[in-house]
Design brief:
Blueprint: H1 2-18, H2 32-35, E1 46-52, E2 55-62, E3 68-76, E4 84-85, E5 89-91, E6 95-102, E7 107-116
């Protein structure tokens, strides 16, 4: 009986790993020389985000010919502090926009989402 208790969890774990779909298993790394893909599509605005205390500022500059719609997202560190999604701003060719937001206390994460218009 003692042997069954020690072997059973290992057997269940092995069965679960073997039953995973193929996409859920880790893949081998691709060497860097094969991973580089050159595209001719515009990449959109380049954004720099700075966090100072509870305030977040992002400057987005668009070097491309297409308009990029950017939006600042802020995730606050405290569970009671509200996370915010800023209003979208259109960044035209050769234009720089400033996006701001804040938390009441600490900032957990901040990022900018892009949508080519």
């Amino acid at each position: 009986m003692r042997l069954f208790r020690s072997v059973a969890p290992v057997t269940v774990a092995v069965c679960l790993v073997l039953s995973l779909p193929n996409d859920a298993r880790p893949h081998a790394r691709v060497p860097a020389r094969h991973a580089a893909v050159v595209t001719e599509e515009p990449i959109g605005a380049e954004c720099r985000i700075s966090v100072e205390g509870s305030r977040v500022t992002a400057y987005c500059h668009n070097p491309d010919a297409a308009t990029d719609r950017v939006r600042l997202h802020i995730e606050c560190a405290r569970w009671w502090d509200l996370d915010t999604d800023g209003a979208p701003a259109d960044v035209g060719p050769a234009v720089t926009v400033r996006l701001t937001g804040r938390c009441w206390k600490e900032v957990g994460a901040a990022w900018v989402s892009h949508q080519l218009v």
